[in-house]
Amino acid sequence: MPGELRDDAVVIGDQKEGCQIYNRGNYGYPLSGGGLELDLIEATYLLETGRIRVTSEETEITFPELFDHSSGKYDEFDIKYMVYRDIRQRGFVVKMETGSFDMSVFPRGETMSSSRPAYLVRAVSERSAMHPADFRREIAETAKKGKKLLYGVVDEEGDLTYYIMSEEDVNGSVATNADVCVEGKMIRDRVFVFRKEDADRLKGFGFFGKDIQNMLQLSLIESCYLMRKGGLAVRDAAGEPISLSALIEHGEKTQDEFYLRLRAYEDLREKGLIVKTGFKYGTHFRMYEKSPDERHARYLAHAISGDSPMAWPEVSRAVRIAGGVKKEMVFCCVTDKIEYVVFKWFRL
Fold first, then answer.
1. From the candidates 74, 162, 288, 340, which is the catalytic residue?
2. Quick one: which of 272, 296, 300, 270 has its CA closest to 286?
3. pLDDT, tens digit, for every residue of 21-49?
4. Which of 168, 226, 261, 286 is in Cβ range 3.0-4.6 Å of 231 for a Cys bridge?
């Protein structure tokens, strides 16, 4: 079917032909008086699939020519087109959006007249910067509209990976109220509780630390949290008391992102979760909703600054690893408060 290129749109002037295109996939926007207007992404896809021909001043335009023309009209046209094309080929009706989102996707097999969009989509390159504040805003806006937020990430070879995102109020059921203050000794960057009775108490009210032959080894983050809760007093190698502020300062000097991780750890513990290191998974933490002796960790978590950009390859690694060990990947966005963004790999 013939269409005419008019700067940033392609118009099918014949009413009958326009109706056929619209009815077989909800492409374009019907014009008053007949005909159909296609945005450049729709028109480029229809030209690629052989559904339309495009002319300009009676000269036929090839697919590469239209793609090149559209790239000059659309910001990041190639990225948006790759995502649009992939979703259309999967059998979904897709419409381009303006504002915060790039496109809306209707449920498979549904049309604009029979349903509402199920997803709002952002199309991005794997090289683009990610800002946690944007995620939180987009998640909130999507939820307010009763839809799900989907990111289509295009890698350097043009392949697509989809992530579905949501904010989640992660919670567990383990209280951490210390009923007694025990004493520990700091050796390098760990704190050791040597009395077996004290070690048992700490394990009993929060599964803290790791047993080593009747004593307990605590990380600096666990130790800072327990000191703040009044459950631990720490002495140095000479037997002198160490204050909480001094212990935090030592942690910041000896460990990367210590304060960021400490903020997230404290908040997660206050939510009733048992928090252990996630080092073997390449993340900051793994988290249990109940006793680690009774079940596997449900979440992997990574603490990030809510004001600093992230890289998509970092997200990809974390989500793939979490999925491979049947856990959910949570990013703890730390600002003046802490919010939790859950990333899940998604198959359309």
1. 288
2. 300
3. 998 899 999 998 788 999 999 999 999 99
4. 226
Residue 281 has pLDDT above 90, yes or no: yes
The two tokens of residue 239 are 């037997």
Angle (CA) 148 275 343, round 5°: 20
Looking at 45, 281, 327, 340, which residue is catalytic? 327
Distance (Å, whole) CA 75 – CA 257:
36
Higher pLDDT, 85 or 58: 85
- Strand 182-187 to strand 190-193: parallel, antiparallel, or no bridges (unpaired)? antiparallel
Q: What is the layout of strands, in order, in the sheet containing 215-219?
A: 210-212, 215-219, 190-193, 182-187, 232-235, 241-242
Helix or strand or coil: residue 278? coil
Q: Which token pair is 208? A: 């803290």
Decide if 225 is catalytic: no
| Class of residue 18 by CB neighbours under 10 A (exposed 0-12, middle 13-18, buried 19+) | buried
* Closest C-alpha among 141, 158, 145, 133 to residue 306: 133
296 is catalytic: yes
**Nearest by Cα to 52 from 36, 76, 32, 68:** 36
Positive or negative CA dihedral for 307, 308, 309, 311?
Answer: negative
Q: Is the Cβ–Cβ distance between 331 and 340 less than 8 Å?
A: yes
Q: How far apart are the first and last CA of the chain?
A: 30
Q: Is 299 a catalytic residue?
A: no
